[in-house]
Each structure stands twice: as C-alpha cells, then as structure tokens.
Write a structure and sequence with these properties.
The chain has seven helices and two strands. The N and C termini lie far apart (about 55 Å). The longest helix has about 35 residues. The protein has one domain. It has a two-stranded antiparallel sheet with strand order 1-2. It is mainly alpha-helical and about 210 residues long.
Length: about 210
C-alpha cells in the first residue's frame, strides 16, 4: 500500500519514495547544525556542573570537535533514516517485503538501542568534550559506561530528562528553552557520576 501512495503538487504527483529521499537528504544536512548545538550546550552545562560561569564564547569554543561529533552522530542518523527509505523502495515492488523490512528493523533496532545504544548516544559527545581522545575511542568509552546491566539506570534518567523537555515543549514551546538545558544538566551529572567510578582516565579538558 505504502509503495503506491502519491503526494500531489501543482506539477503533478511523485512517489512517497522521492519524498522520503528528500527528507533523508534534509536530515543529513541538519546533522552538522545539530552537532554544533549539542557541543555548545553540553560545554556550557559542563561549566555549570563544574561551578564555572558559562559565557557565550564557551558555547562556540568547541567547533574544532565538529568532525568527531559528526562521526558519532551520523551512524545514528543513518540508522534511523535509511530503513524507512529501503522499506518504501521494496514496498513499490512487494508491499509484503516492505512491511517485513519495516517490522523486522523496528523489532531489532528498538531493543538493541535500549540495551546498548542509549549510553553511546548520550555519553559519546560528553566524553569527546572532556577527554583528549578521538570519536571511536569516545564511543567505546561511552558504551562501556552503560553496559546492559547499567543501561536501565541510564534509561530511567534519560526518560526523566525527556519528560522535562516534553513538558517544556508543551508549555507553548517557550518552556523548552529552559527545559532542554535542565534535561542536559541531569544527563551530564549522571555521566560524570558514572564515569568517576569507571576506571577511565581522568578528564583532561574540563
């Protein structure tokens, strides 16, 4: 069914596959901006956690880490964006095959992310910020901080931070300006608390 859906425009119609491909390109183009914002926000909140006064200059002081942040974020962005495109492409040939790919990927991705990916997604960029290491090592360390038996705790804090941000977004959207830094502060505090007992090398860039 999904393979034959059409979007109408003034010039005619085009398949949903073309629409999703356009969305994929748009999302990938937004990843660098998201990385810059994440680096700046986390750097600022790390200063708050360490008792330093944040400044606008500190927000933009981490752009040198953009290549590493891209190497961390792009795999996740592709893992989320590409399967729907593949499912739709297969659906144009066989709706059953498209549905099977979509269902199978969801059944694999969601449990794997909850067990293994939450800490990698949340802690890799903070590790990149405070340690003199590359993106691959930052991801390895982040994964070690949230192994499956620890990930439930991380997931609980992530859910709390998500509820706070969602509540801020529902408050006419304006509240997210305060809720997002607060949610980030919660996750960074958890990151530093877990890391301090992990045996990893002491932070070198705090």
């Amino acid at each position: 069914m999904i393979g034959v859906m059409k979007f109408k425009t003034d010039g005619g119609s085009f398949p949903i596959l073309a629409y999703q491909a356009t969305e994929l390109v748009r999302q990938l183009l937004l990843v660098p901006l998201q990385c810059i914002a994440s680096l700046g926000l986390m750097r600022t909140m790390l200063d708050v956690v360490m008792g330093r006064s944040p400044t606008p200059g500190r927000f933009f002081s981490q752009t040198r880490l953009l290549p590493g942040a891209l190497a961390i974020q792009l795999p996740f962005a592709l893992a989320v964006a590409i399967p729907p495109l593949v499912s739709t492409a297969l659906g144009t040939v066989s709706p059953a095959a498209g549905a099977a790919v979509s269902t199978g990927w969801s059944c694999l991705f969601v449990p794997a992310f909850l067990l293994f990916g939450v800490s990698w997604w949340l802690f890799s960029i903070p590790e990149l910020l405070i340690s003199d290491c590359g993106p691959v090592e930052a991801m390895r360390r982040a994964f070690s901080l949230g192994r499956p038996w620890k990930n439930l705790r991380v997931l609980g804090y992530a859910a709390l931070a998500g509820v706070i941000v969602l509540a801020g977004a529902l408050a006419c959207g304006v509240g997210v300006l305060a809720a997002l830094p607060f949610g980030t502060l919660i996750m960074l505090s958890l990151f530093l608390a877990i890391r301090s007992r992990s045996g990893l090398p002491a932070p070198s860039l705090l």
